[in-house]
Amino acid sequence: MNFQQLRSVREAVRCGFNLTEVALALHTSQPGVSRQVRELEEELGVELFVRSGKRLLGLTTAGKTLLPMVERVLQETDNLRRAGQDLQGREEGRLSIAATHSQARYALPHVVKDFRLRYPKVTLHLHQGSPKQVAQMLLSGEADIGVATEALAEYEPLVTLPCYRWTHSIVLPQAHPLLALNRPVTLHDLVAWPIITYEVGYTGRSHIDQAFAAQGLQPDVVLTAMDADVIKTYVELEMGVGIVASIALDGERDRHLGVLDAGHLFPVNLTRLGIARSHWLPGFAYGFIEAFVPTLTRDVVQQALATPQAFKDGTARTAESGRWRPATPPG
Question: Do 144 and 206 belong together in one domain?
């Protein structure tokens, strides 16, 4: 049994059982991957994959049982390597960040820039996905740090730290009648118009749905997207009224749109940063976290890893009048 065999199994699952992609990920050949898997199966005495000819279709019952063990062995091996580098004081290596599109597009760019200036020898890998996919990347060890609004706190093996609170805004064509109201817009006002907003599971969409449902209203959602810029594009085409995260708005870039505050209509959203409890974070990873949320120092993060429940409901930053400011550390 060797690490390459274990990596072949793990990557086969990560790549959707596509051996061509596995070979590319491991910088080897497709026959080489097949051989590594077969040799491991022979040593274990069980088949790990369901096959059709040479194609892998999925995991067998034995494969599903053994996969978490394979991932733990590889995770601990990676932890050992990183710990050795960290103890040498080396500020080089790889840092993998998983984030939802909104976080990657609007919250992280300046953080990434500052981090690169401070740690020029660290290679950053930025993965995008749904909150569920972000959580899975953390659990599998594919990502070191995850940033998402929803779902992260639902996964027990993850320690999640509150980062900042944010609200939604309404975007409209400039001549839209709702902009002429001499009072705050209501959900009853909104429900009279076609709605364009995020896909289910993204960027506070659950809070939007809950707010309408609480008043017995059924909005006509005519278009959904992961990207606020896509939503704004179709609003400009007068296809409907958009509901987006306030952090996705820029006065100069969005000058062709009308904007209304929706903070009074939908619950406040909380962006969280997630870390797998079993995952060793190198020193520069703490540097990234602190660049993102200055109150989340290394001591605070390590305290959270030691007592994760104490940090479950706190907040690290708040938003007021569209501006971000540091807040009291969670806990």
Answer: no
